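Quick one: FUSC family protein from Acetobacter ghanensis, structure tokens please.
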Amino acid sequence: MKAAAFSFGQFCQAFKTIVRQALEGGGPPRDLSKLRWLFAPNLLSFGYALRTTLSSLIALGIALWWELGSPQWAALTVWMVAQGTRGKSIAKARWHMFGMVVGTICAIVLVGSMPQSPLLYIFWVAAGIGGFCFIGTLLPGPATMTNYRIHGMRASGFTYAIIALDGAAAPDQIFHIAMARATYITLGIVVETTISSLFQYRLGLRARNRLATNFVQALDGAVPALVRLLGGDRRAVANSPSVFTTIVGLSDQVEFAEVEMGEHQHEGDHARAALAAIAVLMSRGLDLGALLSMPESQGQEYQQVAGDVAQFLQTIPQRLSDDQPVAPVLRDLVALRATCTQLAATCLEQEMIAATHPPVDVAQESSLSREGQLLHKLGAILDELQQAIEQFEMSRNPLPHDHFRYPMKSYRDWRMAFTNSLRASVTIFGSGIIWITTGWTDGLTFMMFVSIVCALFSTLEQPALATQAFLHGTIFVVGMSGLLDLWIMAQPTIYETLALCLAVPMLVGGLAFAWPPLVLAAVAYNLFLPILIGPMNQGRMDEILYFNTALPLFLAMVFSMWMYRVFLPFDPDGLRWDLRVSILRRLRRLAQHRAAPPMTEVIGRGVDGFVRLASMTTDDRSTFVRDRYVSGVLSGMTIELNLLRLRAILARDILPDEARHATEAMMNRMRQFSGRYGGQYGRTARAAHLAVEYLTRMEQAETNLSVREEMLRALASLHVIETELKENQAFFDASSPYLDKAFS
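--- reply ---
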């Protein structure tokens, strides 16, 4: 015994020496930061991995205790449902349960309708999953793995595939197969939600605090851009793409906080409205940046108040994050807003004096007019900031019997839905053809794995990249499962030992899932580990069964990734062109005599398109073009908002007839603005320029104060439209589809 202990001590000492020499001696130091998620995880990541591992093992133990036929599906379901927060887990569990019910019913109908028609059977399996992908693409929210409405359709396709393909071999047992699969999934969901609830403390309070933190985080990202804008950097907002991405990402997290709060009084609606107000605030900043291009517009009065506003903005995130009352902040904000209004009125008064007391100083009058327009836009920025802070306060301290509603917006893309559906259907049908034509014994397993991948990833915008990461995780889990199946798993004879053997590999998968760069690879690892282990009461996964499962799994990943790259592959140029055409179409519609959409919808569509472009993965050659498209999308949103303001001005019917005709002439040109044929871009830009010149001359001669103020509003919007059309000519002049000639 002493010799054994001495040998073990020598081994430990030698191992420490080898590690120390590898890290410190001979050559450059090793960079272990990429493995930090494994050997130094944070507390939240370790807690998620630990509780999910426990939930998975408990679900597996119950399934074995009940002597279910395929207990691995219960453990797999736990990993599909488990998320980092309680709200996400509950939301995903609900939609997964809904998808399970829909998929089970559809699978029973399919097997009962055509049990003896193999080719037609495969066609309807493919068409069914394609239909789920079509519906999922149209559901509200971004096309990401964290959109659990879409996950409901993914779960429908997943359940539909495993039940329908298992039932193909025994159609007379389809009801029992369906009930067994539904039992596994329900067991996994119940166990995960129960165990995760035990790890939560003061959930509602922490959810409310997270809503407040999200608002402060979004505002903290917007403030530097606005401060640079007020300092004279007119492209500051357009060059801050991360602000809009952050706003969209935080808005999508509000629903999970609502789930965690349980009984709530519309705090989530107020939080969404507050974040939307920050997006409107940034759009107002785009307007102000366009007006800063006017010469001699930044007078002394504007520079003074802009400096005061910039200093005030820099203090807001800290004042709101300290959980202090917002009344002092709003009081200071109202005072600054009053100063802007007073200075704008003073500019207008001085302008009227200069216009009505000859000799008229045209240069001074124009300078006062431009400074007044800047002060009006600055006041509009402060108005939006006030609304955002008021909604923020309502989310922190909701009023009783509050009926405020601000639902999630949905912007459907029917073309993308059809593309996703067709891509999934053809891929699954192709795998079925391979199975039938080759007569492969494990071809059904191959087709099932292909169907699972298509159900999970076909609704993403870039499924080829997702399946590539999924393939990496698959390779790793095949190796890990081979080690477990062929060596370790041959030893255990009781469940407790089995759980100890599986605990460490599952814990590693949970830690990897909590590390963002490894999320998709970890999903593959966590999902397929129970399948490749295949725990059973009356046997174990031997080498033949292991290889007959691992090979179809690996080939299914390769086939799916290849199909996503070959059939209807992700086309960044095509996506950019579609967004460009849709923006031009919306500009034409806004200029027509139709019901005007609300401003929030215009901003929502613009930000949605912007986020899709900003998240697009491209090579270095197309990064420059992508950045110009991002600028063009923001510019299009700015023009749309100013077209709405011009429509409101025309509807009030205060403008003189001549000014009204000049504005309507620009709107008429915008109604025909396609950007492609017959030089519409040039004529539209010229119409905007002529309208600005005409209203400027008329405004200088106008003596009626109310009419002059209305003309200044119209002139400000026309100035913004003219500037945006001029500075983004290559985007709006769509004679070059992908901006290759314009920026080469």
